[in-house]
From TrEMBL, chain A:
This is Indolepyruvate oxidoreductase subunit IorA. It catalyses: a 2-oxocarboxylate + 2 oxidized [2Fe-2S]-[ferredoxin] + CoA = an acyl-CoA + 2 reduced [2Fe-2S]-[ferredoxin] + CO2 + H(+); indole-3-pyruvate + 2 oxidized [2Fe-2S]-[ferredoxin] + CoA = (indol-3-yl)acetyl-CoA + 2 reduced [2Fe-2S]-[ferredoxin] + CO2 + H(+). PROSITE patterns: 4FE4S_FER_1, 4FE4S_FER_2. One of its GO terms (molecular function) is indolepyruvate ferredoxin oxidoreductase activity. [4Fe-4S] cluster 2 binds at C567, C585, C588, C591. Its cofactor is [4Fe-4S] cluster. Heterodimer composed of an alpha and a beta subunit. Heterodimer of the IorA and IorB subunits. NCBIfam families: IOR_alpha. Catalyzes the ferredoxin-dependent oxidative decarboxylation of arylpyruvates. Its EC number is 1.2.7.8. It is an enzyme of class 1 (oxidoreductase). Residues 546-575, 576-605 form the 4Fe-4S ferredoxin-type domain. Pfam families: Fer4, POR_N, TPP_enzyme_C.
Automatic annotation (TrEMBL), chain B:
The keyword Oxidoreductase applies. PANTHER family: INDOLEPYRUVATE OXIDOREDUCTASE SUBUNIT IORB. Gene3D superfamilies: Pyruvate-ferredoxin oxidoreductase, PFOR, domain III. Keywords: Oxidoreductase. Residues 11-188 form the Pyruvate/ketoisovalerate oxidoreductase catalytic domain. This is Indolepyruvate oxidoreductase. GO terms for molecular function: oxidoreductase activity, acting on the aldehyde or oxo group of donors. The keyword Oxidoreductase applies.
Length: 616, 194
């Protein structure tokens, strides 16, 4: 072990490194918080060891890439956020039937608390639904260990394995023992096995029986997973995942007297390990993050085994069912269940009689999306149209905020086109629908919907906000750098396709107005608003930024710049005149175009800078 | 030993980098450390908090009222952090006001906010990291100056030798190392100034 060192490591990086230590050959994913850093790490650190990693166009494609590699016999992982797994459900359900040859681990990063998600689904349910075992780590070191174990487990049973992390595992940094990666285990060659790999009904029927037999050996094998039992008391806390760390703190530091059993595999339960622990207990308290997945199965198990002991958890509302666990919520539940005093409630907290204003996330200074939303707002208002703005998932979701208010619906990746079409038809053609979608989301699931719009003759003005990267999750690359959205739109039959620069406010407004008339005439119109992400542009051209400043004598305090484009760099002064924070301005020029009094002036060579920015 | 350090600020101010340098230094000095960050959604402009726990700890999040020190990179965010403070909590507050955009309501001046903090918090240290960093040539060094302030005010040298934290700065920042080391040293004055 002399080639191992302890490092402070992000949970997601630990997962990626663990996969490399287990010799993965192929990794695929689609970015989504809190999962994105796994593939990023493999792209940065895996190549030199021969690992193939890719950002796929969506989670289903990523799943199929990794699954295909595993069918051939290579070790592989696929990564995505919890809701991303829904996109991959189709191949996922079938992969349990075919099984795999090489180790195959599906990493799903759940987001309890919805820090950056539209819901907080608990993907351990998916394991139950699909007959796929679920491993659940509690900290970065444990996550690294479990991904290795999961890959070996998968290969041993020839079956996919899921690893469920949560935000407080994926986005926690902790000490991790890092060792040298193993040589990637690629396949020697794909062996054809149509009876197993081709799921026509006759084959699938046979495979279902085989799947159930495999499941029962998996149920036996999970007994030997590294479940942790800490003997202490007749009160037994059963946990899985990050809940284990809160239970440990409660027992070590806050006067809770209990034994703890941490279950590594919430799906399927290690029946013997659990019944052994429970028979020694008078009372069982289940703590888990997300839904009562462990608790429900445990109750069924103990009914089967005829063990009667009080079980308490989320189903009894002992712990919060919405959001993340905290040590406070865990201690509230534990002390209630055990009838003891909660020492955390006697801490003398302080209060100050001032409520700070909310600080919602906003568009970055110079964000081209802010310009696009401004232009869309002005052109629709001028023409008197009252369109439905059908939004989508990405940085541009922030168009929901003041002063834009241009995201009326927003449910899932690619939904802007689909829901928009539904609203058009549902209102019998009476609604002008404007779907707004980003470049990455367009390639993700917008593309089939665009085909549908043309095919089913649904008039819409589709704005594709192309900022050249998947910006919301940290600027990952996507097909927009290689594949022309214009050509795609034309190829599927859109007649009106225009490309504009959102930093050219006049032309943008004119084009949107023209496109609305095309849609009123029954056509599908596509406008690609192309300008690179401001964060990426300044990152690529560090130190070459031109800026703008406000000429205080010319400013008439009309407020148009700070009220309508809401750039965080533009601040209203006491006298309501505008001031531009030179440390925040990135020189996008939009405020200068918007100012009716010509009071916003450039500093530095703006033309050269915007030219460089346009090269992205 | 158990140290709960609660960081609060505005997206883009370098809290995650700060926490990584600190956590890495703690591990280099032989302690356990956990750093819990939440990001995603917008990368800039929103409220950000990071929990740093060092020593005898298992869970990633600090209990309410359980912070030994609250480091506010921006003055309004200091008020949002009081849930994590108790009467003995040390507050280190950067003298910097970042206006929440698009808010019509009046924001108190930085002096008014500072006075409000002074009235309510016993162990308050106000640091001028923003102007210190500007003098050093770039506001990007703001967070390293605050790190120096934290290090000296909490007397962290009893756990983490200065050489170790400088090593961590070198390993984790990679860019402009010399300027960052100077920024750290500039920050040290806040502990001596008491």
């Amino acid at each position: 072990m002399s080639n191992c060192i302890i490092r402070l490591m992000l949970g997601n990086h630990a997962i990626a490194h663990g996969a490399m230590e287990a010799g993965i050959a192929v990794a695929a994913g689609y970015p989504g918080t809190p999962s994105s850093e796994i593939i990023e790490y493999l792209l940065d650190n895996g190549r030199e060891f021969g690992v193939y990693a890719e950002w796929s166009s969506n989670e289903k494609v990523a799943y199929e890439v990794a699954y295909g590699a595993a069918l051939a016999g290579a070790r592989s992982i696929v990564t995505m956020k919890h809701v991303g797994l829904n996109v991959a459900m189709d191949p996922l359900m079938s992969s349990a039937y075919t099984g795999v040859k090489g180790g195959f681990v599906i990493i799903t990063a759940d987001d309890p608390g919805m820090w950056s998600s539209q819901n907080e689904q608990d993907n351990r349910w998916v394991g139950l639904h699909a007959y796929i075992p679920v491993f659940e780590p509690y900290d970065p070191q444990n996550a690294k260990d479990l991904v290795k174990l999961a890959l070996e487990f998968s290969e041993r049973h020839g079956h996919p394995v899921m690893m469920r992390t949560v935000t407080r595992v994926s986005h926690v940094r902790g000490p991790v023992t890092v060792c040298s990666p193993e040589k990637p285990r690629y396949s020697e060659g794909y062996v054809k096995e149509p009876r197993r790999h081709a799921l026509v009904p006759a084959n699938a029927r046979t495979l279902k029986g085989e799947l159930l037999r495999r499941w029962s050996t998996i149920e036996e094998d999970v007994e030997d997973a590294p479940h942790v039992y800490i003997d202490g008391n007749k009160n037994l806390i059963i946990t899985s995942g990050v809940a284990f760390t809160y239970a440990l703190e409660a027992v070590k530091n806050y006067g809770v007297k209990a034994s703890i059993l941490n279950v590594v595999t919430p799906v399927p339960l290690p029946r013997k390990v659990i019944t052994d622990a429970v028979t020694r207990a008078d009372k069982v308290i289940v703590i888990e993050e997300g839904d009562p997945v462990l608790e429900q199965q445990l109750k069924a198990l103990l009914y089967d085994e005829d063990i009667r002991v009080p079980i308490m958890g989320k189903m009894e509302n002992l712990f919060n069912r919405v959001g993340e666990l905290t040590i406070n919520s865990v201690m509230d539940g534990l002390t209630k269940a055990l009838g003891i005093v909660n020492p955390l409630t006697s801490i003398k907290t302080i209060s100050i009689d001032y409520s700070p204003p909310q600080r919602p996330p906003v568009f970055c200074p110079g964000c081209p999306h802010a310009a696009s939303f401004y232009e869309l707002k002005v052109s629709t208002a001028r023409s008197g149209a009252r369109p439905v703005f059908s939004g989508d998932i990405g940085c541009y979701s922030l168009g929901i905020n003041n002063p834009f208010n241009e995201q009326d619906l927003l449910t899932n990746m690619g939904s802007s086109l689909g829901l928009g079409m539904g609203i058009y038809h549902g209102t019998n053609g009476k609604t002008l629908v404007i779907p707004i979608i980003g470049d990455s989301t367009f390639f993700h699931t917008g593309l089939p919907a665009l085909v549908n719009a043309v095919y089913n003759k649904t008039p819409m003005l589709i704005l594709i906000l192309d900022n050249r990267v998947t910006a919301m999750t940290g600027g990952q690359p996507n097909p927009t750098s290689m594949i022309s959205i214009e050509n795609i739109a034309k190829a599927v039959g859109v007649d009106y396709v225009r490309t504009i620069d959102p930093f050219d406010t006049k032309k943008a407004q004119d084009t949107i107005t023209e496109a609305m008339s095309v849609v009123k005439g029954g056509g599908v119109a596509v406008i690609i608003m192309r300008r690179g992400c401001a964060l990426e542009a300044t990152r690529l051209n560090r130190g070459h930024v031109a800026r703008y400043y406000v000429d205080a004598n010319a400013c008439r305090a009309c407020g148009i710049c700070y009220n309508l484009i809401a750039c965080p760099a533009i601040v209203p002064l006491e006298n309501r005149k505008a001031w531009i924070d030179p440390n925040m301005c990135v020189g996008c020029s939009v405020c200068a175009q918007v100012c009716p009094y010509n009071a916003i002036k450039p500093e530095g060579n703006v033309k050269e800078w915007l030219g460089k920015w346009a090269e992205m | 030993m158990r140290l709960n350090i609660y960081l609060t600020g505005v997206g883009g101010q370098g809290l995650v980098t700060f926490a990584t340098v600190l956590g890495d230094a703690a591990i280099r000095a032989g302690y356990k450390a956990l750093v819990a960050e939440t990001h995603g959604l917008s990368q800039r402009g929103g409220s950000v908090d990071v929990h740093v726990r060092i020593g005898d700890i298992d869970a990633p999040l600090i209990p309410r009222g359980g912070a030994d020190v609250i480091v506010a990179f921006e003055i309004i965010e200091a008020f949002r952090a009081v849930d994590y403070a108790n009467e003995d909590t040390v507050f280190i507050v950067n003298r910097r006001l970042i206006r929440p955009p698009m808010i019509k309501q009046k924001i108190p001046s930085i002096n008014e906010l500072e006075n409000l903090l002074r009235k309510n918090i016993r162990k308050l240290y106000v640091v001028d990291a923003y102007s210190d960093a500007a003098k050093l040539g770039n506001i990007i060094y703001e967070n390293t100056i605050i790190l120096g302030a934290l290090y000296s005010i909490l007397r962290l040298n009893q756990y983490i030798p200065q050489g170790v934290i400088e090593e961590s700065i070198k390993m984790n920042l990679r860019r402009d190392i010399d300027k960052n080391l100077r920024a750290f040293t500039i920050g040290l004055k806040y502990g001596n100034a008491k």
